[in-house]
């Protein structure tokens, strides 16, 4: 059997943002609201997720990018990047970023490398039942099972970190389609929607979706909301010119 970590490095998808390194404009209020939601996540009755919505060009991807790789003074000051456990950017330009099983393996790879998780996570991944689920062929056959064995189950079992963390997934509705297998997820959106209520209380799921995609928005209707749509176009800046975010 191949080494699972080597397999994940070869086959997993840990996508970056096309806007990484671009200057962030005029949405500091959104970073502050996200910080408040993240700080409140562990309180009783709080929603497991935050849904970032808006039309094309409203700044959803720019916001998610600033959270993970801050360039602005406010973005660096709020310190959200240090509290991002993992991230994923779905891109039409990169079909690999839309493949469910690659997303799961890429997510595991980021969790494995995270300095904020207990070292016990690595021990869980090395257990025979989890290691077998991390084999690419096994994950292709049943990404839901791999997600539960290697991500959800371990996060629920590990001791909570010192502060609440978040998982950021951008453009979740790109190329979304319903599964043709009963009881199985057919997309990243379906997988996260089916398991969001099971996430540990110290983890906030932050997803961005175009507001006109009612079907996907409905899948995450139980969470808090953050709309980028009311920003005036002249405030959006050059990081949105010619790009459909």
UniProtKB/TrEMBL annotation:
It comes from the Eukaryota. Residues 23-179 form the Orc1-like AAA ATPase domain. This is Ankyrin repeat domain 50-like. It comes from Acanthochromis polyacanthus.
């Amino acid at each position: 059997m191949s080494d699972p970590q080597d397999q994940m490095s070869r086959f997993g998808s840990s996508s970056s943002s096309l806007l990484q390194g671009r200057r962030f404009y005029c949405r500091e209020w959104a970073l502050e609201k996200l910080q408040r939601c993240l700080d409140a996540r562990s309180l009783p009755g709080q929603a497991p997720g935050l849904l970032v919505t808006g039309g094309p060009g409203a700044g959803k991807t720019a916001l998610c990018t600033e959270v993970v790789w801050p360039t602005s003074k406010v973005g660096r000051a709020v310190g959200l990047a240090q509290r991002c456990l993992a991230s994923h950017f779905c891109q039409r330009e990169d079909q690999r970023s839309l493949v469910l099983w690659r997303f799961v393996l890429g997510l595991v790879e980021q969790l494995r490398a995270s300095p904020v998780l207990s070292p016990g996570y690595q021990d869980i991944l090395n257990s025979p039942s989890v290691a077998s689920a991390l084999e690419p062929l096994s994950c292709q056959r049943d990404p839901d099972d791999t997600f539960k064995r290697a991500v959800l189950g371990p996060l629920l079992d590990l001791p909570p970190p010192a502060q609440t963390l978040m998982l950021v997934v951008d453009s979740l509705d790109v190329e979304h389609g319903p599964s043709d297998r009963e009881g199985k997820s057919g997309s990243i959106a379906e997988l996260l929607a089916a398991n969001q209520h099971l996430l540990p209380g110290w983890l906030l799921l932050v997803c961005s979706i175009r507001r006109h995609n009612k079907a996907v928005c409905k899948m995450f209707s139980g969470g808090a909301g953050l709309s980028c749509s009311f920003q005036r176009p002249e405030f959006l800046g050059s990081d949105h010119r010619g790009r459909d975010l």
